[in-house]
Amino acid sequence: MSKLYGDGHRLFQDQHDTRRLADRLESMARAEFDQSDREFIAGAAMFFLSSVDGHGMPTVSYKGGSPGFVRVTAPDEVTFPVYDGNGMFLSLGNIASTGQVGLLFIDFEKPRRLRLQGTARVLTDDSMARDYPGAQHLIAVTVSSIYVNCGRYIHKTGGLQHSRHVPDQNGRQPFPLWKRIDKIADSLSDGDRREVMKAGGPIAIELYPGEDPPGDSGTGAY
Prior knowledge:
Blueprint: H1 7-15, H2 19-27, H3 35-42, E1 46-52, E2 58-64, E3 71-74, E4 77-82, H4 90-97, E5 100-107, E6 112-122, E7 137-149, H5 182-185, H6 190-198
Antiparallel strand pairs: 1-2, 1-5, 3-4, 4-7, 5-6, 6-7
């Protein structure tokens, strides 16, 4: 009896005569990381995170950082930081509600994919926080299934540059320009409002240049 496939999956598998292949791929899934997985994750500067809220509604988020920001912390566990975002905390709230997550790592150079499924939790022990500069929270995922996916449809984007907004080794990062947009600025926290004023005050949305405007040196103000 499959733990992965239901009637809907079987309908299409039988239509295309892939039931045997699907069962073989399910049987090849692992519950612990091998050395290749560990190296892939250690070098990753981004991944996609899917989560599900208490109503069963899914969402998908892009998570980026410096290589090594996702760490294998147990044979069946990865830990990653939550940095300052848009304040909605959709992923974090969903994890607190259901814990059901999927992680997709993509290497656009090789290309290669690695997909994880498991249960996530928000860590309340602050002892690891110093190892993740700039993190607001830490998430640990206990993995139930690890799948290596075919990489043939992955587009190659050579020479990827890391975002200058990733926190540095001291946890510092440039203040995001989008928080200066006038339709958003008045809803910010007191601390962020002070930063907006230090940067010159709110701007009209029509004047928002993006987070890396043309001609920007990339240094930014911390």
